[in-house]
Amino acid sequence: MTTSRLVAAGLLAVVLLGCSGDDDGGESPTTTDPASESTTTTTAAADADVLDAYRGFWDAYLAAADPMDPAHPDLELFATGASLEAVRDAFADHFARGEVIRGSVDLAPKIEQLDDASATVRDCYLDQTHIFDSESGAQVDPPEDATFEVLATLVLEDGSWKVSSLDKVSDGCER
Amino acid sequence: MRALSRIAAVVAAVAITTTLTAAPASGVGTGGAWTNGEDVGAGARDDGADSRSRSGSGSVTCRSERLSDEEARVVVDMVAIGFVPPSEGEGAWYRRRCWTDDGTIVSADIVWRPIAVSASALASDAWDVSRIPLPGINLNPAEDRDQVVNVETWMWVDGWAPVSASASAGGVTVTVTASPTHVEWVMGDGAVVECAGPGRPYDESRPADGQVTDCSHTYRRSSATQPDQRYRIDATSYWRVTWTSSTGESGNLGVVGRTSSVRVRVAEIQAVNG
Questions:
Q1: What does the alpha-carbon distance between residue B195 and residue B234 come to, in Å, rounded to a whole number?
Q2: Between 20 and 30 A from B185 (CA), which of A52, A167, B49, B164?
Q3: How many beta-carbon pairs below 8 A join chains A and B?
Q4: Chain A contacts of B77, Cβ < 8 Å?
Q5: ipTM of the complex model
Q6: pLDDT of B59-103, one tens digit each?
Q7: For A168, which of B24, B36, B77 is closest by C-beta distance?
Q8: What does pTM read for this prediction?
Q9: What CATH number was assigned to the domain covering residues A3-23+31-171?
Q10: CB of A111 within 8 A of CB of A4?
Q11: CB distance B74–A69 less than 8 Å?
Q12: Do A87 and B30 touch (CB under 8 A)?
């Protein structure tokens, strides 16, 4: 479990402990309370769903980037709203330029916030993608890889988590 | 930040683009996934070029290339999600890119271009020889009766009116017209008769004295020695095919012949002297 998830789980435990303390007149709470176990399990599952969706977003991103396909159906499975629009805009421009994006992204996402309908994920990812001319195969951007710290917002849409925004926090970050 | 100059490149591209834009990139730039209000990242690192300033000072070369079938299918999907205006009429999708002297792309668009329509090619495509009617053969005496040696046989054909067909593509309309010119009659006895028109029908309701023909033949021998004791008559009507185009062009597709046949018996009538 990541540090942030531990923090989130700890915060949840504090809330549960507080409620329990009000009810039982001062008895020591235990972490084996069935309700607490159930909630923790549920939260862990939700965490996994969110992180899977975040990773799915990047998988879709890479799938749609080579060959460049702004209308790739996977994009709308994992992105929505401004995020979907931004990726499609960018990819449409690459398509017009005759470019593709190849490579990989090494993700290290951590959940910062999670509720019933939205979640925030902070990531410091290593961007190993580069832009290539689709016809000649020549790389058209600098060869260096780079790290970016980003904050992703995901929303629950029709039962599926989707990235609704992805904002850059900084160039470079410690992984 | 390198991504910022990418935004500048997009702004420059939008500024000099005169055709439709494939990606309305305003506000989000040209990169990949993340944004910070102006930039979009992941795969977005640019080459640091300021295309906007270059586009104003250096020469720009543009080239259009027709998209492959696979790329064209992507564009169709982009049309479906509203990223590219729909196509109009017959044509093809092209990628139009403009470069500065150092190879920097300063604009890139996906454009629909009508196929350059050749009026003559369109006329050829539009024309179908089967539209020209076969000549309907008429004889007097009628073909189901005996023709008579040394008695004039009148010939005429039905279906003697111009035939037209039109076709349009890429905003060009071509009308092809076939006009009958003459009829060639191969009479079966070795004679070939060329008639300048369809021939004049014999009207049985009118006195024979008042009727004349401009298309006839007189058999001199009976058909008794012919297969089935009949001569075969081939009538070929000839049609001159021309076209005119909405572009003002016109042309000639040549002469077409259409042939029908009948078989007739030619009899000799013996004079009986009392």
A1: 13
A2: B164
A3: 131
A4: 69-71
A5: 0.72
A6: 777 788 889 999 999 999 999 999 898 988 778 899 988 888 888
A7: B36
A8: 0.52
A9: 3.10.450.50
A10: yes
A11: yes
A12: no
